[in-house]
Amino acid sequence: MIENAVEFFKNLPPKKCTECGETVSEQHECYGTKCDKCLDFK
User: Fold this and answer.
1) Could you read off the pLDDT of 1-42 as tens digits, one per residue?
2) How many Cβ atoms from other residues are within 10 Å of residue 39's Cβ?
3) Of 5, 8, 10, 35, the residue nearest 21 (C-alpha)
4) Closest listed residue to residue 20, CA positions, set 3, 6, 41, 34
5) Rounded to 5 degrees, what angle do the CA atoms 28, 33, 35 make?
6) What is the pLDDT of residue 5?
7) In the prediction, which pLDDT does 1 show?
8) Domain assignments of the chain as residue spans, ordered by start
9) Does residue 23 contact residue 16 with C-beta atoms inside 8 Å?
10) pTM to 2 decimals?
C-alpha cells in the first residue's frame, strides 16, 4: 500500500499558478496555489 502512495506522488503533474499559469517550483503536495511572482515575494 505504501508503494502505491509513493507512486501517486511521484506521478503528479507539475503544479501551475492559478493566476499566471506558470509552473510553481515547490513540492506538488503543497497547498499553495500561486507562484512567487504572483505572491510578490522578493
Assistant:
1) 567 888 888 888 888 999 999 998 766 567 888 888 888 865
2) 12
3) 35
4) 34
5) 90
6) 84
7) 58
8) 1-42
9) yes
10) 0.60
* Cβ-based neighbour number of residue 35 at 10 Å: 20
- CA 7 – CA 29 distance, rounded (Å): 13
Q: Look up residue 40 and give its three cell numbers.
A: 510578490
Check residue 31 and give its pLDDT: 80
Any idea what the Cα angle at residue 19 is, between residues 33 and 13, rounded to 5°? 50
Q: Which three cell numbers stand for residue 6?
A: 509513493
CA atoms within 13 A on the CB side of 41: 5
